[in-house]
Design goal:
By secondary structure, the protein is of the alpha+beta class. It has 16 helices and 14 strands. The longest helix is centred in the middle third of the chain and has 32 residues. It is globular.
Length: 416
């Protein structure tokens, strides 16, 4: 199918396109080649500049003093932008780390930073590996056929991050359902509704849950991340209710959904590239490189938005103060100027300068944990995996923000 540059740009504001890799990457390759910084006008959306080259995404990320997350940190419809602006004015809008800029971002990020530093990750790794074995055992119990995305991949990272927070296992299914409604807001199968009010209702459910959690942890502090957030103090005062709930939301959602997308997408890549599966099974020392290649290949976070605070020229294109820019991470991670044969899945790719975790001050807080989880899972799985093949058509999530496969039917045999 031929595609014009304008059609390619509008693809970035088309949720269904992200469930169709061929269509998405055709559009992104065209933009990189012919209009790396392209003005997009899509019905129902406020206009934005699509930034599709690796170097340009990096340039915008580096200039965090000039290109701000607020007030439009992710792509939403014009209706959603207006609704969110009203809530910002009322002081009732979600304010996670991805919504914040310095100095607030630096201060709030520091509250949870120690829980994701190398020392903490080393202490957590035995527990992650224990859970990885549990979910590979679960795969064995499923009897050789399953929907890997729904029955295994979504549960393992969820268990890790919610255990770190200190939530009871009885609440895990509720958190999974709310996360899927939040990130699947554009997917007819996952969304709670289509209006801004219906999408807000999902957040209100999160807030109600986490307000109860905050009260419990302030009354009876415990040794978990939830308690650290609830009892954090900034300039001598505790976080307000909105900032506390927002912190929980970003940890509890992004902390597992992106990793489960990588695990499901990583297995799909191995199944469809059997030479790379055999290469990795024969040399597990490649696993750290393979993990980053899976992350590059899947790129679970599709975009973040930035707003220019002053006039700027990007790749010769004049950007005006107040303009919105969409940073396309799937495009940056297939940039022919950076990656040798970028459409080849290569478990030994080195170097691998992917931007799936972002860059600079907004670099993903949980990047190290995500790598540990993906590595632990495949190091447990591959020595036991005798065969694996698709058992139906994989299905992706319709989204413009975060997602991956929502179904991955496989047939397999395991040892033990």
């Amino acid at each position: 199918m031929t595609m014009t540059v304008d059609e390619a740009g509008r693809t970035l504001a088309t949720p269904s396109a992200y469930a169709d890799d061929a269509r998405l990457h055709q559009a992104l390759a065209l933009l990189r080649r012919e209009a790396p910084v392209h003005r997009v006008g899509q019905d129902g959306y406020n206009p934005f500049w699509a930034v599709t080259r690796h170097a340009d995404v990096l340039e915008v990320e580096r200039r965090h003093d000039l290109f701000l997350n607020a007030p439009r940190p992710i792509l939403g419809t014009a209706e959603f932008d207006a609704f969110n602006a009203e809530r910002i004015a009322q002081g009732t809008a979600l304010r996670t780390l991805i919504h914040m800029d310095d100095p607030d971002h630096r201060v709030i990020r520091a509250i949870g930073a120690d829980w994701f530093r190398p020392k903490a990750m080393r202490a957590l790794e035995p527990r992650v590996r224990e859970l990885a074995r549990r979910y590979v055992d679960r795969l064995a119990d499923l009897g050789g056929r399953c929907d890997f995305a729904r029955e295994v991949a979504v549960h393992f990272p969820l268990y890790v991050i919610l255990s770190l927070l200190g939530l009871p296992e009885s609440d895990f299914d509720r958190m999974l359902s709310l996360t899927q409604e939040l990130f699947g807001g554009d997917d007819a199968e996952l969304q709670r509704g289509t209006t801004a009010e219906e999408k807000l209702a999902v957040l209100l459910d999160f807030f109600a849950y986490f307000q109860e959690l905050t009260a419990a942890r302030r009354a009876h502090p415990t040794d978990d991340l939830a308690s650290a957030i609830a009892n954090a103090r900034v300039e001598g005062a505790p976080l307000n209710d909105m900032d506390t709930a927002s912190y929980y939301v970003i940890i509890a959602t992004a902390g597992h959904d992106t990793t489960s997308s990588t695990i499901a997408g990583g297995l799909h890549a191995l199944v469809t590239h059997p030479d790379q599966l055999e290469r990795l099974r024969g040399d597990l020392a490649l696993m750290p490189l393979a993990v980053d290649e899976m992350i590059r290949w899947v790129t679970p976070v599709k975009e973040f938005m930035r707003t220019a605070t002053a006039d700027y020229e990007l790749r010769g294109v004049p950007i005006r103060a107040g303009d919105s820019l969409l940073l396309s991470y799937p495009s940056a991670n297939r940039d022919e100027d950076v990656f040798d044969d970028p459409f080849r899945f290569d478990v030994g790719r080195d170097p691998n300068k992917h931007l799936a975790f972002g860059f600079g001050v907004h670099y993903c807080l949980g990047a190290a944990l995500a790598r540990i989880e993906v590595r632990a899972f495949f190091e447990e799985l591959l020595p036991r995996l005798e065969s694996v093949e698709l058992d139906g058509e994989p299905t992706g999530i319709a989204t413009t923000f975060v997602g991956g496969l929502k179904r991955l039917p496989i047939r397999y045999t395991l040892k033990g």
